[in-house]
Amino acid sequence: MADTSQEFDDPTLAEQVAEYDRLFGIVADGVIGAAGGLAGTALMTGVLFLAASVGAFSFASFASLTEPVGLSDVSSPVTVGYLIFLANGMVPWPLLFAALMEYLPGERPPVSGLFFGGALWTGFVMGFYSGFTGLTLVLYLGFTLAAHLVYGFALGLVFEYLSTRPDSLV
User: Fold this and answer.
1) Where does the UniProt annotation place the signal sequence (predicted)?
2) CB of 30 within 8 A of CB of 44?
């Protein structure tokens, strides 16, 4: 990355370098966010698979994500719904985390990510509820909370790791 503190004979060139640095930083943050979101969503999916194996989560609930975008008639709404879920885990949620990270509790991004994941859980737990009762409801609440904490921690860990590497491309 160019050093914007050096003097340029041409002020227009200095402005172009500064603009490039800002643009590169925005793109780099987006790449870091997508990588963190992918890692977090992958780990979260693993926890949800455990929940599904004990009957405390249904992947069929991902099909509900296809309705608002008019894709409920596709041949595999669960797969399309999961891809929408994955895209949300890789784009808007990491961008929101990047914007809010400094305001969240925790001195390090992984700790802030735990709080972020917990906040996301409050919407997920109601949106993907499939009528569980009794012990299954308790397992559903526990597994989905654990999944969101894992997501937030992984998201924060990737942000911390990639944003502090001196030799990183991002």
Assistant:
1) none
2) no
